[in-house]
Design a protein that fits this description.
The chain has about 130 residues and is of the alpha+beta class. The protein has two domains: about 70 residues, no CATH class; about 45 residues, no CATH class. Helix content is about 15%, strand content about 45%. The chain has a five-stranded antiparallel β-sheet with strand order 1-2-3-4-5, covered by helices on one side. A four-stranded antiparallel β-sheet has the order 8-7-6-9, with no helix packed on it. A hairpin with a 2-residue loop joins β6 and β7. It is globular and about 50 Å long. The N and C termini lie far apart (about 30 Å). The relative contact order is 0.18. The mean pLDDT is about 90.
């Protein structure tokens, strides 16, 4: 089975969005948000699998799930996806990925890292790229 070049396909699909800044590395592609209301997306090709990251939230896909990994990336650019980012004293510690379904936002999954500033007030930012329908 011939492995697809994910970066070629991603860049071809995103060519209609010239406002996006893309940076390609040896095994990853980073898509920067258009403004501060969006979030960074990173697509990583590990050879044996793929990872799609929305800031620090991430989802892994086996090689056979190539199309699913591209769909996840596209979802992150759509108005139906948002990321709730929790921080204390300017340090982000939790990322919740949500989907807009039947008129409501529903949490799909989250990632959290330890934060020893538990006594500090928590700030929540809601980010969405809103580029695709």
């Amino acid at each position: 089975m011939i492995k697809m070049n994910p970066f070629f396909e991603i860049k071809a699909k995103l060519a209609k969005f010239p406002q996006l800044k893309l940076i390609e590395g040896e095994n990853n592609l980073i898509i920067y948000p258009v403004d501060e209301t969006g979030f960074k997306i990173e697509y990583i090709d590990h050879g044996e699998n793929y990872t799609v990251k929305f800031e620090e939230w991430e989802q892994s896909f086996i090689t056979d799930e190539f199309k699913s990994s591209l769909n996840c990336l596209g979802f992150g650019l759509s108005k139906f996806c948002r990321l709730k980012v929790y921080s204390k004293k300017g340090l982000d510690f939790k990322w919740e990925m949500e989907s807009y379904i039947d008129g409501n936002w529903k949490q799909n999954s989250s990632k959290m890292i330890p934060n020893n500033k538990f006594w500090q007030r928590t700030k929540v930012r809601i980010l969405s790229n809103n580029l695709m329908q």
